[in-house]
Structures are given as C-alpha cells and as structure tokens.
Specification:
heterodimer, A: 508 residues, 2 domains, globular, B: 128 residues, alpha/beta, 5-stranded parallel beta sheet
Chain lengths: 508, 128
C-alpha cells in the first residue's frame, strides 16, 4: 500500500540519531510540563517557538509533536497521584485514578494510563497516516467560499462546544480575532488598529501573543495565588499491571481509542468530550459485569478508557491540521504558527509540497509514543518529585524564557512591552474565566479566514452571494446554525437540559 | 509556660519532638507542635498530610502531655516559631539541628540559625 511505503520512508528518515534525539527531548520536556499543573504543552511549545529560527523544520516539528504527546501523558500522572488534573483532558482520569491510588493501586493506575496512551496514540497516529492523504486530496478541490465556511465552523464549534459558557467563549474568540487584525491590510495597506505605532504595522508576532497569554499570564496568575496549602501526594513505585488488570484494561483502551479519534479529527476538537463519553461508557459496561472494584472505588476501566480517549483525540487533531491547515487545539494552533514561521503554507497542499516533513513527522510520532512508554514507566517516581519544585523558582525560569523568546523575534524592546501587555490579557482571561483556546485560535485563524473571505469576495466582485456559491459552503453554514441553535432548542424542549446529550448532538 | 516545637516528618523533626515531649513532661507544661510550609510548591513533604496528622495526634495523646498541633501555610517555619514564642507565656523552643556545610548554608540558609538568633526565649537544639 502506498501509505505504508510512505510511512516506511518516514521511518527511514526519523531513525537518524539527530531526530531520535529531538523526539526524546520532546517527550521528556512534554512529560515535564504535563506533570506540572498549569503548565501545558501549549505553553511549552510557545516558549520554544523561537528555537524554530535555529532548527530545521522537521527537527522542530518532531520535538514539538513529542512535547504534545508527552504533555498528554504527563497530565495523567498528576491526575492519578494528586487528584489535581494537569490539564483539562485528564479531568476524567482523575476521578477513578486517584481513588485507585488511594487504595494503594497507584502503580497499576499509572501503568494502565501509560500503556493505554501508547496503544491509543499508536492506533491514532496510524489512522492519521491513512486518513490525512485522502482528506487532503479532497480538500484541494475546496474553493475559497467553502474553506471560509469550514474555518468559521471550526471556530464556532470550538467556542460553543467546549467550556461551560458560550458568552465567555465568544468573548475570547473576538479578542483573538481583534488581535489578529492588527497591522497593515493585505490588499490596501491601510493601517488597522496600529494606534499610530510603527512597530504594530507588521502585526503582532504570534510568538509574543502566545507566550504572553500562556506563559506570562499563567505566571501572573500563579503569583496572585502563590501560597497554597500543599496537597498530599501518593507515593508510587514502578508501574506494572497484573494479569487481571490487563484483562480488564484492553477493552476500555480500544473503546477509548475509537471514541477519542473522531472527536480529535473533527474541527470540534478537544479531548474533554471523548474522555467524558468514554468514562460514561465504561461505567455503564462495568455495571453489567461483576468482578473487580466498582466505579467510584477505583475501577481500572475508568482510568484505561478516558486515558486512551485522551491520547487518541490528541492524535486525531493532526488530521485537520495536516490536511486542512485547521488547528483545533491550543497546541495545534501553536504548531501551525511554527510551520508558518518557516514560510510553509499549511493547508490542503501541505501533503504534496512537504511530503518528507509530513511522513517523517508521523513516523516520529510513533517513535515518540514508544519512547514515552519506555522512558516513563520506570521514571514515574521521578516525575512525581517534580511536584516539589517551588513555584517562585519555576515561574522565574518560565518568565526568563518568555522574555528571551519574545525579544528574539525582532530583537526589539517594543516586543517586551507587548509581551507584558498580553501577559496582562492572559491574567485577565484567567481571572474572568474566559477560555484561552478560542482566543489563540482567533489570533491564528483570523488572518487566514480573512484571506479566504477576500478571495471569495474578489471572485464575485464583492457580492455577498459569492460566499454561498458552493454547495459545500451552504451545507457547512447549515451545520453552523444547527450547532448554535440546536443545543438551545434541545435545552428548551426537555428540561432539565441533559448536558451530555446536547454535547453529542452538536459534535455529531 | 509552653514548650514549642517545630516538627517535620523526618529524623530531625522526630528528635525534636521526642525531646520536646520530655521537656514538657519535666516542666509539667503544655506542648505546642508547629508544622509550617511556605506553600509555594504543589507538594511539600515537610507538611503533614491527614494520615500523618492522625498518627502525630495519637502519639501525643499517648505521651500524656497536654498538647496542641498547629499547621500554617504561607510563612517560613522560623518566622512561625518565633512569632508563636513571642505571644506565648514564658515559652521555650525545641528544634532539631541538621548538618550543613558552609556552602550549603550560604545557598539554602538555615532555619535553625534564624530561630537561634531571633527567638525571644530559650532554644533547645537537639541532634538525632
């Protein structure tokens, strides 16, 4: 098969010592940031964006992808040992995982999370390899009006499906879109939102926005809540699984993978919904067959399923990113920005123009996934020690790298002032509970959407009907309306509104 | 009169606690056990968790000394002890001492030294 040949070619590339090293650095760094609550892969990749100037595109993408997978893995460690989810996708893992750990089964919980992540990540990455080329060949045929509609759909879904409050989501989205507007208009060279500042004429660098919102914002937020009561950590040895655990885990692993991948792949992104669904499914299935700990008392199925779903959706995210140039998670949008900084046009043509990059990246993901398993099973006790790092030292380091990164973009002190400004924005959105993802998506997708919008309108000589000239575009607009109106109508129809059903309705 | 002891769950804390129980018994006074964390890390192994607190409470009850356990988050153990000694009536402080090289002290500072210098009362320093 062609895909397998291409993937084999990718493996041949990826097995160079240099790339293996970057993959290893990536997964270690990723686990490091994943373990620490508040610091996620998105922040880590944003902080490391400046190194894209020094590295080859494949090297940096391999490392960033490693950070992404490692971050997903590290989050589960924190959830299980502390009951403090390292990132939102691990919330479900924390429920049963922490109970298992409290019953002295931390080693098994960590092992089922690690092996489940490995299996889901591997299957997910293989599915990406098979789906992306097919999708990309179709996507090349999509015209500007439909592309604009799909981007709009992605923004609407991410904003309205994830998070508790739609209004907050849209506030974040519009803040992001506004930031994306700063700079000279592409076709008329009019200055927009530059406030007469020459430095703003080129627009705001995504590095500065991302680092400001993720790193400086988080540092300010932590500084405002510096002293907190330490939490109990559950001591853990080397993770392992008994025979019975294997028997109970493999079903949830595969079901979790099946649930997670599609959710990652559609532009409604996020691992929250599939992990939640996986947890519910496993709980229902476990109720039917007796044996083992029931749910609520540390059932291993409740860790295996959501953790697999989490990693499968993390892998699924690469489908829209590589085939359409559409990021659906915060980390994906930073990856997109990294690719753009190499002058690579991320979109349906990526597979044709950069086949080496794509296939090496996918092969590296499979290698990185294996590395995660090999490195992290014995290292679990070491990762737990990371939680003892005092916050002042940790965040001083983060701020140092944040400033260095922002300054290195243009070697311009003005960027440091901007960094501080966006740090303030990052603090404010945390204070008011505005989600980060729509904001950062708005910044990155906004300009791309504008480009497609202009293209579509140019074709129709500025007539608004140009936006509806394709059947696909109209279908997507219908979906958008359904996504916005559906949950409201459903909520009215049956009170009290069942939140889970509403979620399913929208994502389907 | 009160005996104040800075307690952390390791050999130095144990030595201090044993000496403090003895001292409170000898003086016939009550015992105030302080356990402090600066609360700047997610996990602090010197801060007593629930199960450790229960164990400590049982041990103190067994010793038969009138006692109180006080946990604090936010300030340094040295500041906490000195402040508690400042408000207590005729206090005495018991602390555990650990070995520190001069370089180690330069980098890490010394809680014991600060208590010895700042305390308004007697300080009994014990070694494990």
């Amino acid at each position: 098969m062609e895909t397998l040949d291409l993937l084999a070619g990718g493996f041949a590339e990826a097995f160079s010592p240099q790339l293996l090293l970057y993959a290893a650095i990536g997964v270690l760094l990723g686990t490091f940031v994943g373990v620490l609550p508040g610091i996620g892969p998105a922040m880590a990749v944003a902080l490391l964006l400046p190194i894209t100037y020094g590295l080859d595109v494949t090297e940096s993408m391999v490392m960033f992808a490693g950070i992404y997978y490692g971050g997903m893995y590290g989050g589960s460690t924190t959830s299980i040992l502390l009951n403090t989810p390292g990132e939102s996708a691990s919330v479900m893992t924390a429920i049963e995982g922490n109970k298992m750990a409290k019953r002295g089964r931390a080693a098994q919980a960590l092992a089922t999370a690690a092996i489940g992540s490995f299996i889901a990540g591997t299957i997910g990455t293989l599915l990406v390899a098979f789906f992306t080329p097919a999708l990309a060949t179709q996507a090349v045929k999509i015209g500007a009006p439909s592309f604009f509609a799909i981007m709009l759909l992605s923004l609407v879904l991410v904003t309205s499906v994830l998070g508790e409050s739609k209004i907050r989501g849209f506030i974040g989205l519009f803040m992001g879109l506004t930031i994306g507007l700063i700079g000279l208009d592409l076709s008329t060279a009019q200055a927009r939102l530059t406030f007469g500042l020459l430095e703003l004429a080129d627009g705001v660098s995504i590095v500065v926005v991302a680092v400001g919102v993720f790193a400086v914002g988080e540092a300010l937020w932590v500084a405002a809540h510096l002293r907190r009561k330490p939490v109990d950590v559950i001591p853990v040895g080397r993770p392992f699984l008994g025979r019975d655990d294997w028997r109970r885990s493999w079903g949830p692993w595969l079901r979790g993978t099946g649930l997670g991948f599609p959710f990652g792949a559609v532009p409604a992104g996020g691992a929250e919904t599939p992990t939640f669904l996986s947890y519910i499914t496993e709980r229902k299935l476990a109720a039917r067959k007796p044996g083992g700990e029931p749910f609520g008392e540390g059932a291993i199925e409740g860790v295996a399923g959501p953790e697999a779903a989490n990693n499968a959706s993390a892998a699924g995210m690469f489908v829209p990113l590589l085939a359409l140039g559409l990021p659906v998670t915060a980390t994906a949008s930073i990856l997109l920005a990294a690719l753009q900084s190499y002058g690579i046009i991320v979109g349906p043509t990526l597979m044709d123009e950069q086949p080496d990059l794509v296939w090496t990246l996918l092969a590296s993901l499979l290698i990185g996934n294996t590395l995660l398993l090999v490195i992290n099973l014995p290292l679990a006790p070491v990762w737990a020690k990371l939680l003892r790092i005092p916050r002042p030292q940790l965040y001083a380091g983060i701020l140092f790298f944040a400033s260095l990164g922002a300054y290195s973009v243009n070697s311009d002190p003005f960027d440091l002032a901007l960094l501080l400004f966006f740090g303030g924005v990052g603090f404010a959105i945390r204070r008011f509970g505005i989600p980060v993802l729509p904001l950062i998506l708005g910044v990155i997708l906004g300009p791309l959407m504008e480009l497609k919008l202009r293209e579509a309108l140019d074709l129709s000589n500025g007539d608004i009907s140009g936006l509806f000239s394709e059947a696909l575009a109209i279908a997507v607009y219908v979906l958008i309306v359904l996504a916005l109106v559906g949950p409201v109508v459903l909520g009215r129809l049956r009170k009290p509104a069942d939140e889970q059903d509403a979620k399913e309705e929208v994502s389907a | 009169m009160t005996v104040l002891v800075g307690y952390i769950p390791d050999q130095y804390g144990e030595a201090a606690l044993a000496a403090a129980i003895e001292e409170a018994d000898r003086r016939g006074t009550d015992l105030l056990v302080l356990n402090a964390s600066r609360g700047d890390a997610l996990v602090d192994k010197r801060y007593l968790g629930e199960s450790q607190l229960g164990d400590l409470e049982r041990r103190l009850a067994d010793s038969g000394v009138a006692h109180e356990i006080r946990q604090s988050v936010g300030s340094d153990a040295a500041d906490e002890l000195v402040a508690a000694a400042g408000v207590a009536d005729d206090p005495v402080i018991v602390i555990g001492m650990r070995h520190r090289t001069p370089v180690g002290k330069l980098i890490m500072g010394s809680t014991a030294q600060r208590i010895l210098l700042d305390a308004p009362c007697w300080v009994i320093a014990v070694k494990p």
